[in-house]
Amino acid sequence: MAVPALYVVPTPIGNRADMVPRAIEVLQSVSLIAAEDMRHSRPLLNHFGIETPMIAYHDHSDERVVERVLAALRSGDSVALISDAGTPLISDPGYRIVDAAHSEGIAVVPIPGACAAIAALSAGGLPSDRFCFEGFLPAKTQVRHTALSALAAETRTLVFYEAPHRLLATVQAMAEVFGGERIAVLARELSKLHETIRRASLAELAEWINQDSNQQRGECVLLVKGAPAREQALDAEAERILYLLMDELPLKQAAQLAAQITGLKKNLLYDAGVKRARDR
After folding, report:
1. How is domain 6-110 classified at the CATH fold level?
2. CB-CB neighbours of 159 under 10 Å
3. Chunked in runs of 10, what are the mean pLDDT values of the chain (280 residues)?
4. Which in 103, 165, 243, 270 has the greatest CB count within 10 A?
């Protein structure tokens, strides 16, 4: 029997074999399942022999639905939150219920499992030590362009979800804003029969999608390599501070103190100091 709590339970993004055993156990033992779409979730639950009562919940549900879930939790029952596929709240419903549960001091328990963004990132071959999840871009052309422009200098790998009918327009817009040479990955229909992972420049990716209409079907994740980091440069004031300190201190100490004053990197200041000493 599940300990009384709100359980955030991922469901497969395509392949039912990806349903983790703990998720099945929780869904079988909770008192209530809050599902994004009961019609969509019922076949999955039937497949695993889960007969737990369901209630429809999404982030536009009225307060009566949220109150019903909270009432069950307050009474000591356990509730599971699921979305149509993947991990709830990752561009899926669930925020309002999780936020309300925390506000009332109710335990929230995450069950690890399928997530399209993480699956794509793990197989995309782009830097994954730092990444930025942006979810779905705006549908309108100009607003989407503005959103992409705000991300043009982002150095972390960018992760997006996109609807298949907007995929081509989005990749073309990315090529325009980020530059056609920027490397990107299309991860489509992950874990399903027609799974596709294609890495190429944005210009090449746009052309490939345009020539193959099959790529404009199914669930899509787009990864875009981050922008190159801009090298810092010393301005006149930073040079003045460094040189004054160098007249009184060893270079290593002068560079360290100048970094604290200017906010610039110590190595940059140290290298500038070495150059000045050599040029004297």
Report:
1. Cobalt-precorrin-4 Transmethylase; domain 1 (3.40.1010)
2. 24
3. 89 96 97 96 97 92 90 96 96 93 96 97 96 96 96 96 96 97 97 96 97 92 92 82 91 92 88 83
4. 270
